[in-house]
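Standup notes
- DV: blocked on the single-chain target, sequence here:
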Amino acid sequence: MSTIGFLGLGIMGSPMAVNLAKAGHAVLGWNRSPGKADALLAAGGREASSIAEAVRDADVVITMVPASPQVEALAYGPDGILAHAKPGTLLIDMSSITPQTSIDLAKKAAEQGVRVLDAPVSGGEAGAVEGVLSIMIGGERADFEAARPVLEAVGTTLVHCGPHGSGQTVKAANQLIVAVNLQAVAEAVVFLEKSGVDLAAALDVLGGGLAGSAVLARKKDNFLQRAYAPGFKLELHHKDMGIVTDAARTVGAPLSVGATVAQLIASAVARGDGALDHSALLRGVELLSGCAPEQ
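- DV (later): unblocked, structure below
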């Protein structure tokens, strides 16, 4: 069992930290805003008052925050991870950030004797709660193998994708696929309802055929009930589409459909839907089709 400093106890981070504590790891959690550690404390973990306290004696440090600026704020500076983590510490960044940020972090951490893996996840809040996340890992294979007992407490699909930054590149592709899938299901929902078809029955049979997907299975109730409590916020998917769009431009990969969906997500965020679940793309389709979105 490892001593783990876990930084970022949000929608995803809190249940992940809880699962690590339940697996027997000694978890010391920290969050920038207070009042987020209750679930971890109930699971047997502890709360740190600072980044330094969380990482000082840790074998493993895990970060789970929204984007590159937050990861950099945690890692660098006199109050950051690299200033206080002991040599040999394994830093696992499970945020979704740019591949280049991960590459830069690994280089700077190596100067302090800290090993780094980029290990973004897919599966949303439900996957985090159930401990069945899919984890895409970039970095040294030996560090991946060392991290396996920790990662197995939060995920069931663990894949080493290549050198530093590879995990983030695969996550960017994941977010592209999920966004396009969500938009396609949203358009199908409006098409089915306008055609007078029983929506619940239609989604059941679609889910059993080639149109079935994890997106349809996990988000079906969101679409049926227009329930948009965030499992993954649209504003975060907006950030991720910026990552994949920029990375694809760099390597010369066209994103014809993805670019359109990226604009639809941007429109949803601009309308004020950024704090809703990404299944709220349905609201945009309803607007385009002349329907008043349900609040």
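- Follow-up: Residues 172 and 240 are 7 Å apart (CA to CA).
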